[in-house]
Amino acid sequence: MLDTGNTGFMLLATSLVMLMTPGLAFFYGGLVGRKNVLAIMIQSFVSMGWTSVIWYTCGYSLCFSGKGAIIGNLNLAFLSGVKPTDLMPGNNIPLFVFIAYQMMFAIITPALITGAFANRVRFPAYLAFLTAWLFFVYFPAVHMIWGGGILQEWGVLDFAGGIVVHAVAGMAALASVFFVGTRKLKEPLPHSIPLVALGTGLLWFGWYGFNAGSEVKVDSITAMAFINTDTAASFAAITWLIIAWVLEKKPKFVGLLTGSIAGLATITPAAGYVSVGTAALIGVISGIVCYFAVSMKNKLGWDDALDVWGVHGVGGILGVICLGLFASTEINPAGANGLFNGDSSFFMKEIVAVVGFSIYAFIFSYIALFCINWFTPVRTTEKEEIDGLDSTLHGEEAYI
């Protein structure tokens, strides 16, 4: 029988996660220079359209059909056989609601990567990369960890996407930075801190659907994931602000905003498996580790323009490590006990999964860009970069 409460909540959660992609567009749009705002925003918005098309045709089927494999089959391609009356067992929401919810995750994950190669990648190459990356990185990750694949059967947990979303996107971002190289023209960044703040607010707001919605029903774990999300983000934001204030001598707004995103990314895999106190600790750890990861990136000269690796990649990997350390069945009986609660085997499973997928995402992303470059240039010309991609690639300007 249809559970209207769970259904209503999941429709709301789906809408919140959808809102995160425009939020990401605003966040990235504010961080780049004035001549490249539209070029990076369209990379998020086009994923909303193109990824949805792929999801309907075969993406959902490849993620959530079949058992015990690396990738699903095509039995549910074009949502074949799915009826409006079909319900998910255990929470009794329409299967179409779950399909839509997971589609929103598929939309935002590759869009996260775009901040790394801001101002340097041509639009056709990005579309090709987006498509290949979904099929060869995101869909296998979802199936293996959430869709009944081999890692889920092995006992790997990832509440809302530390591996599936943030670790793989962050490592793909780093690979893209190494492939495309540094920018010829580094504009003063960010060009609009209010836009960055607006994007952060939308992302933070949407993250409640991202994490709490991953329980796929309303219960005590849903509430735990909700408050853990806010707690980690808040502690990470303040931690980042304090470190920057001490080391850079000023309390910087962008630092506060960036710290909150780092905290959100880090708590994501553990949100439904740890206590509120642990979420606060994870937030502090995230603020420290991600701040110094970004500092290290800058010293090494890696031109990850918008710190995707340092925030999402490092944050996602750190969150999975924390899950392996702090998870407790006293918090979530359906979860596992981490290393500090007596289960070293679960900790090792989490490490193997996150390290393995991170390495794979990095290698595949680099090879994919190399292959795409044979068919269409990946990197913009020096003139296009200097003139700005808004006008040279898209024939439009954000500001007149």
Describe this structure in words.
With 400 residues, the protein is mainly alpha-helical. It has one domain: Ammonium transporter AmtB like domains (Ammonium transporter fold, Orthogonal Bundle). It is built from 14 helices and no strands. The chain is globular and about 60 Å long. The chain starts with a helix and ends in a 6-residue tail after the last helix. The relative contact order is 0.15.
| CATH H-level superfamily title | Ammonium transporter AmtB like domains
Number of helices: 14
CATH class categorisation? Mainly Alpha
Summed up, the domain count is: 1
The biggest sheet amounts to: none
Shape: globular
Specify Rg, calculated over alpha carbons.
20 Å
Give the tally of β-strands: 0
H/E series:
HHHHHHHHHHHHHH
CATH topology: Ammonium transporter fold
Mean pLDDT figure: 96
Q: What is the correct CATH architecture? A: Orthogonal Bundle
Secondary-structure-derived class: mainly alpha
Which structural traits does this protein have?
400 residues; Ammonium transporter fold; 68% helix; globular
Write the layout of secondary structure elements.
Layout: H1 4-31, H2 37-64, H3 95-113, H4 123-145, H5 150-154, H6 162-180, H7 193-212, H8 220-248, H9 253-267, H10 276-300, H11 308-326, H12 344-375, H13 382-387, H14 389-394
